[in-house]
Structures are given as structure tokens and as C-alpha cells.
Amino acid sequence: MSAQTFEATANGETPLFYEVEEHHHPEGSSTMLGFWMYLMSDCLIFAILFACYAVLGHSYGGGEGPKQLFELPLVALNTAMLLFSSLTYGFAMLTMERPGASVRAVQGWLIVTGLFGLAFLCIELYEFSNLIHEGAGPWRSAFLSSFFTLVGTHGLHVTVGLIWLVTLVAQIGMHGLGQANRRRLMCLSMFWHFLDVIWIGVFTIVYLMGVLG
Amino acid sequence: MSADTLHNSAHGHDHGHDDHTHGDHGHGEAPHGSLRGYMIGFILSVILTAIPFALVMTGKLDGTTTAVIVLAMAAIQVVVHMVFFLHMTTTAEGGWSFLALLFTVIVIVITLSGSIWVMYHMNANMMPSPAAVTETMSQQ
Which residue numbers delimit the Heme-copper oxidase subunit III family profile domain (chain A) (predicted)? Predict the structure, then answer.
């Protein structure tokens, strides 16, 4: 850098120490990176909730533990729903990227994704209501408090993702697959796949390791 | 770096504008997936999910072995999702997204290992285990 300054001065030019002009970035060019930063910060929220669960997960307060409470077949079904929804969202993105992509086809894949997501949520709510019915609500023990907080936060993210998905289905129906809408679809794609990554942690640490003991 | 500097100083006037062109290849293009990529990711995920569930549900292997396999498969599956679904590469967004990921992973490792380590010792030192409490209560 100093060599450059020296050389520039030697040529009789004013050395450039800082740029006065604004950078001309095309609109939305930094959205994906910014959204990735958001996802990483969201990741930290989940890391803290996982840490809470790891610390409190064995404090049953004399109540029932994961072995008695969790039904693995139901969790396996839930995992399958989320994994299928990840795949169908991938198909939506592939359809979108094809030249001359039809709005209907993209909408179709998005709706299929949304239905899988909805199935996931329904199964999770069914599980929650079962637990609460058995008297194993979040107030019962530190283990159940941390369980409901962690899994509930993930479920809340899926709910928000579903609302976003429905919004985008309407949006591309009205305005087509323009540059802005493609960007939004890509952000939701990252969000959706990210939730699936978090779910890997949930079913492994909470359910499988919990039942294992 | 030095070659770059020399190049820029050679075109002294353009210097300020040359730097902007990185926007064209760095940010404009989003990482693209392919049908093959999604299918590979999906099939690997199914395998890496089915094996841990089967091991825990049937209880074929002993606890420790199962735990190690389950955790290892989860770690592999996270990488599979990152590569095939989130299209994570070390060069996407000029390397910044990978750097953010790396930073996040470091913070997560510190948070998790620190919490578990400290709180385990707190528990061991401070609190009677539930079993001990019941024993004391039954003795009284």
C-alpha cells in the first residue's frame, strides 16, 4: 500500500487515501449475505436453548423422563415431513431457475412444501397437547420447561416460515417471478433449509439421546 | 496482493472504479442447486436419519456405541444439508458467508461445551441427586 502511495505521488498524482464516491451496488445484491448473517444469529439463539436443555435436561423434578414421555415413531414421522418439505422446496427453486419458469409450477411446489410444513406443525402440536394432557406441561419440571422452550421455538420458526410461504405464493401470483420475488424465494429457501438443519439437532439431542438415557 | 496493487497503480485513474466490479461476480450470482444435488442430499439425509432412529428404537447395540453413532450421523447430516440444500461453499459471497458460519460454529462450541462443563460441576458439587433426596426422605 505504501509503495503504491509513493509511486502515485512520484507520478504527480494525488494519492487516494479513502473513497469519496458511494459504491454502486445493484439493488438487493447484499440481501443474501445479510440474510445469512441473520440465520447465523438465529443459530446462536438455538445454541443457547440447546445449552439450556443440555444443562436442565436431566432435572425431572421427580416426574417422568424422556423414556416414558417421547414417542419415537411420531418423531420419525415428523422428521420425514420436514425432510420432504426441504426436498419439495428444492424443486420449487429448480423450477424457478429454469428459463421461462411458470408461476403456477413454482406455486404448486411451494404449496406442497407448505402442506408438509403444516403436517409437521400439526404433529408437533398433537404431541404437545398429549404431553400437557398427561400432566407433563412446561411447568412440571426443568426438563420439560427447557424441552418446550427449545422445541416450541423451532415450531414458532416453522409457523413464521409458513406465513412467509403463503405470502410469497400470493406475491408471485400477483407480480410474477421478477428479480425481487426471486430474491425473496431464495431467502425463504435458506430459512426453510436452515430450520431442517436445526431439527437434526433437535431430534438427535432431545429425542434420540433422551430416549437412549 | 502485491501484483494487484501494481496493476491498480498502473491504471491509476481507474483505480476507484476497478474495485466495484467485484459486485458483478461476487454478489449477483446466487448459488444454484441441481436436481442431482437435491436428490443426493435427500437420499443421504434419509439414510442418516433412518439409521439412528432404527438403532435407538430396536436397541441392537449397547448405549455408548449407539450414542456415538447417533451423534456422528447427526454431524454428517448437518454437513450434508449445508452442502446440498444450503449450497454452502467456501467461495460463496466472496467467502464472507463461510467466515460467518465458521465464527458461529466457534461461538456455538464455546457456548455448549462451556455451559455443560461448568453446570455439570455446579450440579455435582451443589445439589443432591434426586435419588439421594428420596433416600433421605424415606429414612426420616
Answer: 1-211
Residues B61-85: tens digit of each pLDDT? 888 999 999 999 999 999 999 999 9
Torsion, Cα A16 A21 A22 A24, to 10 degrees, reads -100
CB A54 within 8 A of CB B115: yes
**Cα–Cα distance, A207 to A76 (Å, whole number):** 10
Could you give the ipTM of this predicted complex? 0.84
Q: How far away is chain B from the Cα of A132, in angstroms, using its nearest Cα?
A: 23
Q: Which domains does chain A have, with CATH numbers?
A: 28-212 (1.20.120.80)
Q: What is this structure's pTM?
A: 0.81
Give dist(CA A190, CA A155) in Å, integer: 17
Query: Do A204 and B82 lie within an 8 Å CB cutoff?
Result: no
Reported as a single tens digit per residue, the pLDDT across A103-117 is 999 999 999 999 999
The answer to whether residues A201 and A46 touch, using CB atoms and an 8 Å cutoff, is yes
